[in-house]
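For the sake of transparency, this paper describes our internal protein records without simplification. An entry from our holdings is shown next, in its original layout:
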Amino acid sequence: MNKFNILAFDTATNYENLCLNVNGEIVAHKKSFATVSHSSLLLKNIDEIFREIGITSGQIDAVAIPAGPGSFTGVRIGFSVAKAFCAIQNIPLITVSTTEALAASALTYAGNAEFIVPVIDARKKEVYSAVFAVEKHKILTRQTQDMAVSIEELYNIIFAKSKNVVFAGDYFYKNEFENQMPKFGLVAAELANYNTSIALANIAVQEMERGLPDAGLSAEPLYIRKSEAEIKFGK
C-alpha cells in the first residue's frame, strides 16, 4: 500500500474540524465550534497540527475538503485556503460532497441502519440532505442527489424507503426531528456532528491509491441554491 500524508478539513458548517492522516493513520485531529471566522481559526489550527506532529507543509501529498453544500461563506473559505495551499505545494486537491463525508463519518455509529441521511442547516426552514443506503461491508450507495428540502419533505422521501434510518449532521433542527419521528414511525435516529475531516482523509487516501488525481485546482463549490448576496444583487 502506498503511503501518503493527507491534510483534510471541513469548514462547510459551524463545526470546523480538521485532521492529518499520515501513512493511513490519523495522527492529529481538531474539532471546534467556529465562534470566530473560519479563516482565522482554520489557519491557526493547521499551524498547530503541523507543529504538534513535526511535519511541514512541504510534506503534505494532498488536501481534502468538502465541496458543499453547506454554509456559503464556510465553503468558500475552505476552497480558498485549500486551493492556495495546493497551488503553492503543487499537490492534488480532492473534493467530496459534504453529505457524502457526513454519511461516511456516521458509518461507525450506524449499527444495523438501512440508510444514513446527512442533515445540514440550509436556513429558510430547510436542510441540505441526501439519502445513502448502507450496503454489505458498510459500503455507502447514494440514493438521491444533494437537495435543499424542508424536514417534512425529507421525512416523506425517507419514509418511502425505510423506517430504519440514522441521521447525521446538524443539531440546529434537533427538536423538529424528534417531534416528527413518531409521526413517521422512524425507529433509529442520531443527530450529531461527526468527524467529517477523518472521513475526507480516508476517502482521499483511497483516491490517491487508485492513481494520482489531477491537481483539482479547477474544482468549484457545490451550491444547491444561490446565496443571499446573489439573490439580493441578482447575480
Summary: The helical segments are 38-53, 72-89, 98-106, 151-159, 174-184, 196-209, 228-233.
